[in-house]
Design goal:
two-stranded antiparallel ribbon, 56% helix, two-stranded antiparallel sheet, 153 residues, 7% strand
Length: 153
């Protein structure tokens, strides 16, 4: 992609959340903006990114001029790419030791809140509402992954 293309995509994503039309967005919206650009940083990576774009004196807002160069570099370097579908599938299969093709809600909550970088309560509820089939109270992870994976084209 040409630099102008990156800038256009970033500006469009930023403007959605620039409610005052003054080239600033609430710092809490940055994660959503970055994800809308097809990047999937972890909470830790997001935290580091925010440190780069925040003002010396934290104001709770991020300025477009600060965000643009940092985000351009992220897109050019293809950082925080979504995890490929086959890798996600293998990860779920490891958790599904009985090879049922699904995990129960209880199993999912346990893995997501106790292992690795734990999900917050809010993230967990968001995932469960998207992933869990209310009838079986479990997640058919093959279907979930297909739904989750971002179409690259």
């Amino acid at each position: 992609l040409a630099l102008a293309e990156f800038h256009k995509k970033i500006k469009e994503a930023f403007e959605v959340f620039d409610h005052e039309s003054n080239n600033t967005v609430d710092v809490r919206e940055i994660g959503t903006i970055i994800r809308s650009l097809g990047c999937c940083p972890s909470e830790g990576e997001l935290h580091d990114l925010l440190a780069e774009v925040e003002e010396e004196e934290p104001t709770g807002y991020i300025r477009y001029e600060k965000f643009l160069p940092v985000m351009t570099k992220v897109l050019q370097e293809r950082r925080y790419r979504p995890i490929p579908e086959d890798v996600l599938l293998r990860a779920f299969e490891v958790l599904d030791s009985a090879k049922h093709g699904f995990l129960t809600k209880e199993e999912l909550v346990k893995y997501m809140t106790e292992e690795g970088e734990p999900f917050s309560q809010e993230e967990m509820e968001e995932m469960l509402s998207a992933a869990i089939d209310p009838e079986s109270n479990s997640i058919n992870y093959k279907e979930y992954i297909t739904m989750m994976v971002i179409d690259e084209n």
